[in-house]
What we know:
alpha+beta; seven-stranded antiparallel sheet; 33% strand
Amino acid sequence: MPPIINEMGGAVVTAWSSGTGGSRRRLGAMATADVVEAWSSCGSMAHIEKYALRSLCVFLKCGLLSVHGDGDDNQNVQVNPQPTFKVDQNMMFLNMDELYVGNIHKIKFDFDDPSTSPHHFLPKEVADSIPFASSELQNILKLFSIPQGSEKAKAMEDTLFKCENTYKKGEVRTCTTSLESMIDFVRSVFGPRAEIKVLANSHTPGSTSTSDEYTMAEVGEIPMHKMVGCHWMRYPYSVYDCHHRFNSKAKVFRVKLVGNRGGDELETYVSCHMDTSTWDQNLQVFDLLNVKPGSSPICHFFPEGDLIWIQPSI
């Protein structure tokens, strides 16, 4: 299986792995080059697959990756993620001609408190054993001791509804409830032997999220063949809404943003849909950007917590 490579904007992440007898080995900061080198010396396919999952958890903005177990295939991978951005939908979208160095874009990024919104990946065998359907919502709420009618319960209901009702013509879509199922979906789109790269936002440690305007300091297109967007959903554990549009050209840009106050500095990603001629003409985004379906590309930022999977161009 070809390597899974990450792009984290140079972010440094530390992971811990539990070994036989409970001993711990510090994995340390992992950069793209380190991952590629590790892949070349991983050994058997079973070890490679385990390493891929562990490494990918580090890529997904994990503050701490805990691997519990004695090295067998049934290890419990737990993720404590960094704060997730909440982005006003009316500020996420932009025209492609707005992607240039020096442009100032009005957008507000608000950081969640990770202590009040923890979520983690469940092992596939555990996630698959938990009901994931609107018809089972009451049982799911009881399972996680979440009061009916609470904000969390409403968020879960909304997530289940979207996962069951947001499929569109010309696209393949699924809600993944584990890291393994996410990778399986991406490989079903790209092909089992395709090289995969995952893109995730990063921000400088001193960022305060007080800025309401950001200047584009760097803009660069990332060459690719295909892409899958995975959007983080509100749920007691990590659920991602992943989708890919067939026969639809898209471009992805890496954008460095510098805020107007508080030392905010982000490296984020923008996806541009080049052909919108088949989109619903009543979508609010057309009024927002003052364009008509098919007249020009429509672009949007990916908030932190979301992922872009690409098949890089050779």
